[in-house]
Amino acid sequence: MRLFSIAFGTSELAVATVLATYMAGLALGASLAGRYISTIRRPVLVYGLLELGIAISATAVPFLLVTARQLLVAIIGGQPAPPDAGGTIQALFFLGSTFLILLVPTGMMGATLPLLTRFCVHTPEQVGRRTGYLYSINTAGAVLGTLTAGFLLLPRIGLAGTVYVGVIVNAFVFVLTLLLIRSVNQRESVTSATLFTESDSSKVPQRDQPQVTSRSRVILVLMLASGFVSFTYEVLWTRLLGHLMGGSVSAFATMLAGFLSGIAIGSAIAARIARSRKAAVVGFVIAQVGTALLSIAIYLALDHLPALVAQFSDDIRMTLGAKAGLSFFILLPATLCIGATFPFAVQIITRNVAEAGEASARVYAWNTLGAISGAVLAGFVLVPTLEFASTAKLAVGFNLTIALIAAWLLLRESSRPSIVLAALLFFAMLLFRPSAPENLMRVSSFSRIPARGEMLFSAVGRSATVTLLKSDGQYELRNNGLPEAGVFAKGFPLINVHPSHWQSALPVVARPNAESMLIIGFGGGGTIEGVPPSVQSIDVIELEPEMIAANRRIAPLRRHDPLSDPRVRLIINDARGALSLTNKKYDIIISQPSHPWTAGASHLFTSEFFTQIKSHLNPGGIFVQWMTVNVVDETLIKTLAATVLDVFEYSRLYRPHPSTLLFLSSNEQIDPERQLAWSGEPLESVRAHYSRMGIYGVEELCHALAANQSGLKVLADRAPVNTDRFNRFAMQDSNSARPSLTVELLDELLRPHDPLVEPDSELFNGSAPAVDAARLASTLVSHGNYPRAQRVAVAHLNEVDRFYIEGRILAFRGDHQRSRNTYQHVLSLAPDHAGALFEFLLPLATHQPRPPEVSEALKSLPDPEKAVIEQLPNAVAGRWDEVARADERLAKGLPGREYSVYVTRLRAGWRVTLEDAQLGKQRAREAIDIIDESVHEDLDVVCLRQRFLAAVILDRPEIQVETASVLAQAIGYYGPATSSLTATNISDVRFNAPVVLPRLSQLLTDSRVERDRVEEVAEKFLHLLKLTKTQQTRFPN
After folding, report:
1. Do the strands 537-542 and 516-520 form a parallel or antiparallel pair, or are they unpaired?
2. What are 427-439's pLDDT values in tens digits?
3. CA atoms of 88 and 85, how far apart (whole Å)
4. Mean pLDDT, residues 319-337 taken together
5. Is pLDDT at 247 greater than 90 in this prediction?
6. Nearest alpha-carbon partner for 753 in 672, 860, 638
7. Which of 212, 711, 859, 1003 is 20 to 30 A away from residue 367, measured at CA?
8. How far is CA 749 from CA 138, 635, 721, 722, 780, in A?
9. Strand partners, 705
């Protein structure tokens, strides 16, 4: 399957085709074996030759896949744009080429079990028993192969090595059969003469059995139906358990092995029971009923599994083995019943010993045909259409119906069992009214605690289960329980830098003339929101259609709707498959697939895929690769760096958020910092766009820069390149005991490669340095990165500026007295130092009358610092008209500076305070824009209050509610468990609650906002007010 996913992609069409043709080959092989088995005199030799044939044909599969891929590109490639999956020609090609490639090896596989039955069954008593044992042993081998490949071979020797190990095993089995033939040659010739020649088969002694009529042939149809429903369960349970186990190779191997283990054990147990046809019929009926009833219990139990896992584990993660053990014992009873059906069916249909091999072949073929339809229809029709609950009910009904038909037609002695079963069918279907397993759908392999929030949307897609949760003004998209993206509600303040915005903004800074962009993975659409207006076209490739449906569900509710962007063209397909069929090239390609160990994403982190990306870039084009630190470890980060460097000549690493990494790569020189410093573009053209995501100038780029080209090379030194044949990301397991990176560990990992502290860094040196080191160090302090700011100060600043940076760090840490002393020291060394002078004068600005030293010092301050110090007393005194007259001077300020928050407070303050019937709403809109373009890192209480007041003027209830919610958080509300406030918090509550609560009370009857949400926000302020009363003796007025 992994080989085919590399060649044809992981779209639902490709996966369904591979699965169907693989099992069809098994069925065809079994059917042909059953037809000709009576003419085979030496079944062991033929079996050995089949194993050798499997080995030989398996070696050809990788080469045939490459040829098939090339042929597909030749037939339908070269399209002007990436196509959607599912075209008629593409579907027919997948089906035909996959069938031809797999026909020989899978056909041979399907023929092996009937041949073994032909060799091992010699008496009527052995039909059910030995057939069951053979089926059990064969299935146990599949379990062993699954676990060995998933946990041992693939992680250690890669995909190609695993294939060749399988080839060696098949060849070894052939050698063993030759040795077996030599030891039992004489016995085999006797049995072949007496049992398997047409002339002598009638001479075999027969046990007295009930008369068999043509109606018993119905067992083949029932086994087809049984195979259908069994694999419907397999798909259903695998999809459900995937939330808990994860989507890695090892997790899938574990789930499949658990399912097959139960079948193997069930077959072995049934082998001891199926000694006669009547016993087999009874056993078959009981197995079907047992499967139905136990599946009901399993479905109901699975929704309680997260709580059970939480009880067994105090860690955030529980090991895969522990989860697997728990899941195995939950599924075991039903899988025992599923496994028991095969030996029962063979015993029922076999009339004499000579037919044992043929009978097993026919049963195996019909059962496999049912499994094909079950796997394909359940995975791509039933589960996506009916979802989990209705699919489970349908499968239970199938089992009971199979049992009823079997009892009615095969247990002819009495109609009582049929009547009982009919009643059971009626009551079971009446009582079994399953609902969606919401608890299970809220968990992931990362967390044992279900995600909170109202579930607005849930859909079982063909490749993933997508859920959409709403919690406290934010929407969270989850993919198989894994957090995929966060989306802010309409009206929510722009208080945090969204890392996904950087993914699309950063490459445009590197190439301001870029016009076309490809984004791989839609997520929550945040990357599209960050695309600057200068980009003319945006193609987005998304694997799961339900992810788009979830985004459409909240389109009118979110802050921005990326789906309404006319530049966007959606392609529903696997990225590798879509790109292989087009010649279109882009200026920028961004790859942000989901969690890198999952089946739909792991193959998008290999050198082969990066090479494919490179072939679709225009000259000088930029590639951006996203990664988040909590899903990988140190080894994988180094491997990713090595892989990027292996394909692209130039690369840099950015870290716009503590847990987010962006690899920026190209085959031509890239230097966004110097480019921006020299040209000012693209910020000069669309400054508001970049300001809204916290990019004000070159300092913000430097703050995010984690490693340059030379640093990346050192980081990736001796790390292996990730390839399709040895995909280390696919082997990564979210349940692994190996610790993932944390922000702190990433700091340690990147510190030796920090380009900001290199003594000869091109950023600060040369004839035209890109950045002012003092300005950069101050920016780092504003972002809370104090250690890095200190390192930059030591490496590049003079004594005066080093002391100034130290003063800022002390102020941010709350040590204001030492901070003022440090500023005084700076001014003693450099009296005209604007930054120190501003910080020193700020606490004195509102003192009335103005101290003489303040008036004297103001003469040395430039605007906007001077305007801020002058206007703060006017704002405190309510003289907002004076502040308004100074707006032009204040507007000279730039975001991200020491004075910026005060400039924002003053400029927004007069706009929401001064009443003007004609300009009031215009000024209110301006106030919100000023705040949203300036305040990102801090939850500034004053600015949030002004934003709330502006929303009241504009009569925008959604902005009022969401701003009030964030205002409560800024004041000190951290959830219902908040139990104490500082003196400053209490003052802020008393100042803001009388303004906010009355307005929220009015909004309770406003149909434009949800009443529950208004009540939720109001409860925050009521909780804060309650705390102020309980703590007023501690903080008296």
Report:
1. parallel
2. 777 778 889 898 8
3. 9
4. 78
5. no
6. 638
7. 212
8. 48, 11, 19, 20, 19
9. 654
Burial category of 831 from C-beta neighbours within 10 Å (exposed 0-12, middle 13-18, buried 19 and up): exposed
Asked whether the predicted pLDDT for residue 417 surpasses 80, the reply is no
Amino acid found at 199: S
Q: Are 338 and 467 in contact (CB under 8 A)?
A: no
Where is 570: in which H helix or E strand? strand 568-572
Confidence tier at 200 by pLDDT (50, 70, 90): very low
- How much helix, strand and coil, in percent to the nearest 5, is found in the chain? 65, 10, 25
pLDDT given for residue 707 in this prediction: 94
Pairwise CA distance, residues 370 & 361, whole Å: 14
CA distances in angstroms from 671 to 100, 651, 698, listed in the order given: 50, 10, 11
Provide the pairing of β-strand 482-488 with 586-591: unpaired
Alpha carbon distance 165, 102 (integer Å): 18
Does a cis peptide bond (omega within 30 degrees of 0) precede residue 155? Answer: no
**pLDDT value at position 131?**
72
Q: Which amino acid is it at 1012?
A: D
Task: Calculate mean pLDDT across residues 710-717.
Answer: 93
Q: Give the burial string for 438-477 (b: 16+ CB within 10 Å, else e).
A: eebbbbbbbbbebbebeeebbbbbbbbbbbbbbebbbbbb
Mean pLDDT score of the chain: 85
What is the 8-class DSSP label of residue 149? Answer: I
Residues in contact with 755: Cβ distance below 8 Å, sequence separation at least 6, in sequence order = 705, 706, 707, 708, 711, 761, 763
Alpha helices in 619-679 (DSSP H): 634-647, 672-679
Query: How much is the pLDDT for 512?
Result: 95
Residue 931, pLDDT > 60, answer yes
CB atoms within 10 A of CB 152: 12
Q: Scan for tokens 């003594």, then name that residue.
A: 759
Calpha distance 318→733 (Å, rounded): 12
What is the reported pLDDT for 768? 59
Q: What does the pLDDT average to over 985-1006?
A: 94
The whole-angstrom separation of Cα 786 and Cα 794 is 12
Q: What is the pLDDT of residues 854-904, one digit of tens each?
A: 788 888 889 999 999 999 999 999 999 999 999 999 998 887 788 989 999
Segment (H or E) for 972 = none
pLDDT beyond 60 at 12: no
Kindly give, in sequence order, each residue whose CB lies less than 8 Å from that of residue 951, ignoring residues fewer than 6 positions away: 491, 924, 928, 957, 959, 960, 963
What is the helix (H) or strand (E) element at residue 541, kind and residue range? strand 537-542
Token pair for 856: 């004297």
d(CA 968, CA 960): 12
Query: Can you read off the two tokens belonging to residue 395?
Result: 């499968």
The two structure tokens encoding residue 1021: 């302020």
What amino acid is encoded at 874 in this protein? Answer: N
Which helix (H) or strand (E) element contains residue 589? strand 586-591
Q: Whole-angstrom Cα distance, residue 502 to residue 1001?
A: 38
Percent of the chain topping pLDDT 70: 88
Confidence at residue 557, expressed as pLDDT on a 0 to 100 scale: 92
Distance CA 498, CA 662 (A): 13
Task: Please state whether beta strands 660-666 and 568-572 pair in parallel, antiparallel, or not at all (unpaired).
Answer: unpaired
Compute φ and ψ for 616, nearest 5 degrees: -105, 15
Q: How far apart are CA 299 and CA 331, in angstroms?
A: 10
Name the pLDDT band for 198 (thresholds 50, 70, 90).
very low
Instruction: Give me the sheet containing 474-479, strands edge to edge.
Output: 454-460, 465-471, 474-479, 482-488
Residue 1016, pLDDT > 90, answer: yes
- Residue 467 forms beta bridges with which residues? 458, 478
Architecture of domain 2-203+221-411+418-438 in CATH? Up-down Bundle (1.20)
Topology, domain 494-757: Rossmann fold (3.40.50)
**Distance between CA atoms of 825 and 812, rounded to whole angstroms?**
18
Domain ranges of the chain: 2-203+221-411+418-438, 494-757, 862-955, 957-1037
